[in-house]
Amino acid sequence: MHLISTIAVIFAAFNCLTAAHPTSSEDFATRSVNTLDDVTIFVPPSTYTIPRTLYARTLLLETDGDETNVLLATWENYSPEPPYFPIYQSTDSGSTWAEISRVTDQVNGWGLRYQPFLYELPSEFGGFPAGTILCAGNSIPADLSATQIDLYASTDKGLTWTFVSHIASGGVAEPVNGDTPVWEPFLMLFEDEMIVYYSDQRDPAHGQKLVHQTSTDLLTWASPVDDVAYDVFDDRPGMTTVALLPNGSYIMTYEFFGAPEASFAVYYRVSDDPTTFDSAPGQVLRATDGTIPTSSPFIVWSPVGGANGILAVSANSDSAVFLNQCLGAPNAWTRVTTPESASYSRNLRVMPDGTLLITGAGVLSGSDNSVTTSSIDLNSVTLASCD
Ligand SMILES: *[C@@H]1O[C@H](CO)[C@@H](O)[C@H](O)[C@H]1NC(C)=O
């Protein structure tokens, strides 16, 4: 969770792409794919509390299904109390959406209020079959007096949900240094363990730091391990997301309040082991046009685009995305415009046809937020070369 920045950063108004130097003629094969231009998933009613929606997340169901390319979406949903995570489904690659279920708080009596995350088990794990959908999120009472990252599961593709376990408990849900909340879970299976990454304000030595816990059964969770913790108390690294690189290493992005380059600058770290990011150096993300994206990043890797594929990063500061075909090389991030407006904690999802689905649910200051999605074709982008 981040403090609202008062530092205005003026970005170049035009998008300056670096000349393409494909390593082979096959790198940018011309293919015709359908892209989405600001498709509406959900317009909240006026009875919702402003900002009404935020923090969209999507999931592409890829495992063990009768249908292929089913998408799910959820978001922070500021409904009448108690809030819940809506589950919307698209069976046409994101063109149309309908509600199929709601993940409701089954244990705390508080509602499921902030920061949902959806994950599909790629293989049997912890007694749950491959294709089980997990939903982690922050259960918080109406008075915001506590934070509780909880885990739910669906074994029927998102139609019904069951509470699985409590992962982490924290204090008052305010992003104020000295308070003790937990925020923003991100799930990823690694070898024989489920990792949940999250932001943690409970350590008195750090206003906020990034940690993870692991589990072999989804029921009990090992003690938190640091991923990013700066020596300066007021520094606030936040909002972990992680992607697997094609060479077997992992890359994490985070926002860094306290970064020398810009308030909430997007940073990243690369590690052979996704449980040891704490010992990896941090690197600011700076595009070839000089842009430093800020706040609430999200990273994915796409196999499209040459031997290395393409890394894609979204951030709150920009409607554009930042693409890198060089495994995250610092000098090879290209800013690429998209039809999707900027949002707080926008979600990225790589589709089987090589499009990048970009889904947002509005901005922190928004009074008329809605949930929308767009896509760009990664088959036809022109990116900085890797030399
Ligand atoms: C994968 O590539 C990244 C970026 O060049 C590098 O930092 C990392 O060490 C590589 N990993 C392996 C296992 O070679």
TrEMBL record:
Protein name, UniProt field: BNR/Asp-box repeat protein
Organism expressing this protein natively: Lentinula raphanica
InterPro entries for this protein: Sialidase_sf
Keyword flag Signal: yes
Top-level taxon of the source organism: Eukaryota
Signal peptide residue numbers: 1-20
SUPFAM superfamilies for this protein: Sialidases
Keywords associated with the record: Signal
